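Hi U.,

Before I forget, here's the chain from the pilot set. I'm dumping it here mostly so it's searchable later in email.
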Amino acid sequence: MKAYKFSGLPSNADVASGVTVLAAAWFVLATGAILSDNHSQATLEAARPAPVTSVYYIPAEARETIVVEARRIAG
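Structure:
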């Protein structure tokens, strides 16, 4: 008995290369869309550096020290 041959179906290598080409094309299109997009006002404001604030002195009374104590259990 002869084994049936699927002549119309592409090989695994053809499918893999097709998926790779489609993914690469999608990334190229997405990159072009991102680069050609007009920036919104919110995007421009987020890209601006934060204003420089003055450094405040914290008095010694306001500083707190946290001490963590734990017992070690011998294995």
